[in-house]
Amino acid sequence: MKPWLTCFFCLTLIATPAFSADNEQAASMQSTPEDFEEFSQVMQGRWISEIIWINDWPGFGEKGDTVTGYADYQIAENGRVLTGREYLGPGSMTTLVYYDEGKHQIFQHTVSSAGNVWNNIIYKEGREWNVKVMGSTGDGKEITGSAIRYISDQGQTQRYSGEMFIDGEELDPLRDSFRRIGD
After folding, report:
1. Residue 74, helix vs strand vs coil
2. What is the pLDDT of residues 34-60, one digit of tens each?
3. Is 135 exposed, middle or buried (0-12, 13-18, 19+ CB in 10 A)?
4. Strand-pair partners of 105
């Protein structure tokens, strides 16, 4: 066998499993328009939350501090987008959630008053809403992780748990809770 053909064959063997694994992960994070509608209904309304800071977040609080938060999520643009505002201690965040028809995924984009940015993918596995966490801090460090939003009490209570990393360093576990206080 010619050396270039052997090299090509070896590269193909190495690249195929990596490509396949990436495609399987993307497929598992796919959603439907009906999933997005369901998620929007779950999130719509006014919420009070108890947030435990998993890291020192400039403009918000220090690791381990507990704050009460308030959020308001509303469906807009004929059901094609979910907008949200959250007030957490001295900081705030604005969120935009939508369904991408081409990618078959639910995207969540959030920007905080401290400059943190999240570009998450939301998808449902079983009865839980899963979140692939991606973003960056206000000073440019990479945020990654995964979380699950557990819904209970006929949609009146949510618990958000999971793990996050900043530049590869694991933070304290997510353990936030939310209670619906109105529509």
Report:
1. strand
2. 999 999 999 999 999 999 999 999 999
3. buried
4. 100
Please write the tens of the pLDDT for every residue from 4-28. Answer: 444 444 444 444 444 444 444 566 8
Strands (E), 137-171: 142-152, 157-166, 169-170
d(CA 158, CA 180): 8
Compute the distance between CA of residue 73 and CA of residue 95 in angstroms, rounded to an integer: 9
Q: Check: CB of residue 95 under 8 Å from CB of residue 110.
A: yes
Q: Could you identify the residue written with the tokens 């505002």?
A: 85
Res. 129 pLDDT band, cuts 50 70 90: very high
Between the alpha carbon of residue 46 and those of residues 71, 86, 101, the distances in Å are 6, 10, 28
What's the pTM? Answer: 0.85
Residue 107 buriedness (CB in 10 A; 0-12 / 13-18 / 19+):
middle
User: In 3-state terms, what secondary structure has residue 166?
Assistant: strand
